[in-house]
Amino acid sequence: MAGARIVRVDLRRPDLRFPLPERFAERLDGRTIVSLGRRAKYLLLDLDDGHVLIMHLGMSGSFRVDTGAGSHVPGEFHYDRSADGAHDHVVFHLSNGRRVTYNDPRRFGFMDLVLRSELEAHPFFKGLGIEPLGNELDGARLASLMKGKSAPLKAALLDQRIVAGLGNIYVCEALHRAHLSPRRAAGTLARKSGAPTERAELLARTIREVLNIALTAGGSSLRDHRLTDGTLGYFQHQFRVYDREGEPCPTLDCGGVVRRILQSGRSTFYCPACQR
Which domains does the chain carry? Predict the structure, then answer.
């Protein structure tokens, strides 16, 4: 899509999870796509008029790239894509002859169009925390964000106002690799002076490691998730604790057993023997 001009946008319905912006197709017609990016769990498509197309996949949304000669999807598929066009909701026709189709059976995804200069003030982005793979995340910043917080560490890491984009699976895995209990008070990552503890330094490194391993593996395919070429992500085969309740802890010489507890309505998997 980068560098292509949007020739036409076909809307198959007026809404997804939320109503689409007014004159949505008209405002996109003729615009050139400058670049694509991401913030937290949002896809960002910058346009040549200073606007940004915000896209969120929700639970079941995906994009399919078609050529002008016919509809086919690049890559090997673990499961065949549905041929039912009833779930094709937004179609972008591009100047390079490609079509990019947004398909979403459950319609939990959404799109919006805002000025780039107003993006950080938008309700979706206002108050979002730092990026887990950005330059800001290190032990010192993590300690400063957690200082004085009595909330459990697991809940604090899932708070998008602190770190944007971390999900339940990756928090469980990072905490296990850092040998930190999900029940631990978040504020214990900072010393009284505010300086980071060794645990804070280790956790910051571990968060980056887990996310990079997952990206290399193609993510964690649970239920609907697929990569853009249709293949499954296989990080789930490297899970140490997530969804492994009752199994032996993989930490060498630990001898513990993985437990599952509920925290803020989410399943937490951890080893009570080696995570303190």
Answer: 6-121 (3.20.190.10), 139-270 (1.10.8.50)
128-to-37, 76, 122, 123, 276 alpha-carbon distances in Å = 16, 36, 10, 10, 29
Residue 142: CB atoms within 10 A of its CB come to 27
What distances in angstroms separate CA 186 from CA 147, 161, 222, 231, 259, one per listed residue? 7, 14, 28, 37, 20
Helix (H) or strand (E) holding 27: helix 24-28
Question: pTM of the predicted model, to two decimals?
Answer: 0.75
**Predicted local distance difference test score (pLDDT) of residue 78:** 40
44-90 pLDDT per residue, tens = 999 999 999 999 988 778 888 887 666 654 444 344 445 568 999 99
Residue pointed to by tokens 């300690």: 143
Q: What are phi and psi of 65, to 5 degrees?
A: -105, 125
The whole-angstrom separation of Cα 110 and Cα 190 is 38
Rounded Cα gap, residues 219 and 207, in angstroms: 14
d(CA 235, CA 45): 27
Q: Are 137 and 170 in contact (CB under 8 A)?
A: no
Residue 165 identity: G
Provide the pLDDT for residue 223: 41
| Radius of gyration of the chain from its Cα atoms, rounded to whole angstroms | 21
Handedness of CA 232, 238, 244, 246 (dihedral sign): positive
Q: Which of 141, 110, 114 is nearest to 126 (CA)?
A: 114
Phi, psi of 189 (to 5 degrees): -80, -10
